[in-house]
Amino acid sequence: MGQKFDRVVVIGYGKATGNILKYIEGQRTAYGYHLEFIEHESHALSITRKICEEMDIPYSFMPDKQELSAYLCGIMEKTLIVSASNNFLFPAACVEKENITIINFHNALLPDYPGRNAPSWVIYQGERETGITWHYVTAGIDEGNIIVQKRCAIGPEDKAYELTERLMDLACEGFEECFAAVLEERAQTTSQGNVSGRRMYRSYEVPGDGFFELSEEPEAIYRLLRSVDYGKNDIFPHMQTVVDGVRAEVVRYRKIVSEKKKVEENVVYLPLSGTHLLKMKYRIL
After folding, report:
1. Mean pLDDT by 10 residues, the chain (285 residues)
2. CA-CA distance, 126 to 220, in Å (whole number)?
3. d(CA 119, CA 246)
4. Which of 12, 79, 229, 231 has the lowest CB atom count within 10 Å?
């Protein structure tokens, strides 16, 4: 088995990145590369840092973009950078270095839904299917050739955090399928084609611009609420509406059967399909 890369650098955070890191460590003896992990975004309970400590993997925390850019651009060995659940945008000076190859995980089926928070947007747009993409990184955002894609259905009740968890599992599956081919520089890729002018989703964008009217289709409102629901992670602000002429924000919601409807303060009900209701608890602003 020929050695192609002297060094593998993993950048990211979270459970999926941790699983990927452990897989790469498990392959290290066979390929003989040096492995290190960089955490760019701070997390109170860093799973990846704990893994590095347990497996004796060199760990660095680099929240400063300029510091991280300088570090990566200064790498001289033939290096594979694995970007997993990582929001750092690699500078062109790093991407274009001949000794550096970068692969990235994106939580959608590129070329569709490039940019940030793709699970939210596919739910909001009413898609029935999504998936993950591992691709080579180029100077353009989410534009590089596709290495592998994995698909999954979007259920009618799926919330953003539930879909995200499934996509993370798919990311690990896809990575394990393609890692050897990437290391040995024999991966068969697919071009994304002409990606100019496509819709790029930015981190500051919120589905529905963060607002809905109670007169809108209840199923669409339910879809909007599910699309921004990341559980305890405050990715998006509470969705807002107007109740009896007063601005309010939805603090809780759920789908219930009609028989469970009861009069409660600051609660509004909307009819969903069948015998179900959308129950929304709101707070006056």
Report:
1. 81 92 96 95 79 96 95 96 93 95 97 96 98 96 96 97 97 97 96 89 96 98 98 93 97 96 95 94 97
2. 9
3. 31
4. 231
Burial of 203 (0-12, 13-18, 19+ CB in 10 A): exposed
178 neighbors 147 (Cβ within 8 angstroms): yes
What is the number of other CB atoms lying within 10 angstroms of the CB of residue 4?
A: 15
* pLDDT score of 2: 46
Pick the closest to residue 175 from 129, 132, 138, 139 (CA basis).
132
Q: Considering the entire predicted model, what is its pTM?
A: 0.94
CATH of 7-183, one of 3.30.1490.100, 3.20.20.190, 3.40.50.720, 3.40.50.170: 3.40.50.170
Q: Going edge to edge, which strands form the sheet with 59-61?
A: 59-61, 34-39, 7-12, 79-84, 100-106, 129-136, 146-153
Local structure of residue 211 (DSSP, 8 states): B
- State the pLDDT at residue 136: 98
Domain boundaries, the chain: 7-183, 208-284
